[in-house]
Amino acid sequence: MPPDAARRSDRSRLAVLTAALELVEELGYAKLTVEAVAARAGVGKQTIYRWWPTKGTLLFDAFVELRAAGRDVRPRGELGDDLKLELREAIAELVERRFDQVCRMLVHEARTDLVTLLLTPRRVVLEQRLAEAGRAGEIRSDVDVPTAAELLLGPVYQRWLLRTGPLTGAFSDTVVDLTLRALRA
Amino acid sequence: MPPDAARRSDRSRLAVLTAALELVEELGYAKLTVEAVAARAGVGKQTIYRWWPTKGTLLFDAFVELRAAGRDVRPRGELGDDLKLELREAIAELVERRFDQVCRMLVHEARTDLVTLLLTPRRVVLEQRLAEAGRAGEIRSDVDVPTAAELLLGPVYQRWLLRTGPLTGAFSDTVVDLTLRALRA
Questions:
Q1: Which domains, ranges and CATH numbers included, belong to chain A?
Q2: Known InterPro entries for this protein (chains A, B) (predicted)?
Q3: pLDDT tens by residue, A94-144
């Protein structure tokens, strides 16, 4: 593709992904149509279908690409504060309408592999912070970091998915406080 | 209904529920048909449809009724051993084909309220054991029991549902060991 055509193609792609996320937030997954995304992005329907066979794949790409762009590395603070902030952000994301719609759609379509992929960035951040804490002696050196991360995230994801209780910052703070007692020397 | 008819009706109901569980174990949810359940139970298809509108509702009732019957109250042992045994049993149940099929079917049909109901008996047992441990001074008295139960079950259910890692007894033992460090005085 000549450089100008490649640039136009990148611009169209970004316009489509942005429109998809805006519309799933406004309409929810069930009412979202490829026609509406095409109209808002100013491209033809066929352009969308050429890149994405279904609205599910389109939304998944939109979510992964546009979300990753906004993620900054945060300066480190006290371990407990850092973990609480991470879990509160995880909850804020889970209850955000567009994320909730995309994730539940994937669960209902039995694409739990993709749900796991969507959730992986948070898990990686938590594991990095915990590994750092291990090196700094803030937690015991024999703690299994992946299991510790699941102790933090498991209760939160379970409440979100199965709606077993209110998904609040107070709940996740308690999970952090309990887990830190388990991890500290 | 005269007593004889009521007994016949109870017998038919039990035969249908038993056949449904056997067949979902043998065939999986997708291949299970109401015709096959009727044939094995020795009742007419209409008898099944009169009581259960869909195979999903039939399987759910089968699971709840026949499972509850087999649950015994266990003598208490050391707290850590009891919790490890409970989680290992939870895992054995989750990976059992008929339970796995019924639960994933419910998740895919967005009936997570029913999944929660299916999982509730285990949660209740864990909460009772933890409350007892609180009264006996085995764990701190200020521990929030429902949150502690989610710390134990959340990581297990998350691994089961999202397949984020191998669902083994070694994993759940680690979860118990870590959680107990959090709960003990």
A1: 5-67 (1.10.10.60), 74-183 (1.10.357.10)
A2: Homeodomain-like_sf, HTH-type_TetR-like_transc_reg, HTH_TetR, Tet_transcr_reg_TetR-rel_C_sf, TetR_C
A3: 888 888 888 877 777 767 777 888 888 888 899 999 999 999 999 998 899
